[in-house]
Amino acid sequence: MYGTFTSNVDMKSGSPAFGTPEFTKACFAAGQLARRIGVPWRSSSATASNVPDAQAAYEAEMSLWGAMLAGCNLLLHGAGWLESGLSASYEKFILDIEMAQMFAELFQPLGASEADIAADVIASVEPGGHFFAAEHTMQRYRNAFYAPIVSDWRNFGAWRDAGAKSAAERATSIWKDVLSRHTPPMRDPAILEALHAFADRRRAEGGAPI
Fold first, then answer.
1. Lowest CB count within 10 Å: 15, 83, 164, 209, which one?
2. What is the number of structural domains in the chain?
């Protein structure tokens, strides 16, 4: 698999920048190079933001546009990334899953059957009418559209009355709920003991040399 990870830097500080137009263009080029030599291509969803804020969201989405439009076969570091990869966030993990699922839905082909197009249903509704009560709608409304895990589509008043939670705050509730219901898989006690002993020894030694 052909793996790439390239971007520009902040020319004022030398810090890496991710989710930039240059990052996305580099993805386009990398995807073409991978297809040129006939191998799968690995990309990523990256951000330089330090917290799960608006910057983290729009940089990650720019990264995802580069990966998806360039034909990514494997998305590595696709969820939770913050601080140019130096840290991770449970909230960002949930927000990234939302974005990844939306992209997955976006790339599903549109149906073109008679039932999908429903020309007869369109013709049956007079000007000024609506489709909410149509049988075609009633049969499909539960699953016709992507159902978000984080997004809040209520109006301002309803959102305010429900606590006025931001996307990051809603993501916090989601990951806490998921972890509270998680049952860890069975693991070999001897392997766990060896791993803990290794970690304790490395901490006592001061970790990896600088």
1. 209
2. 2
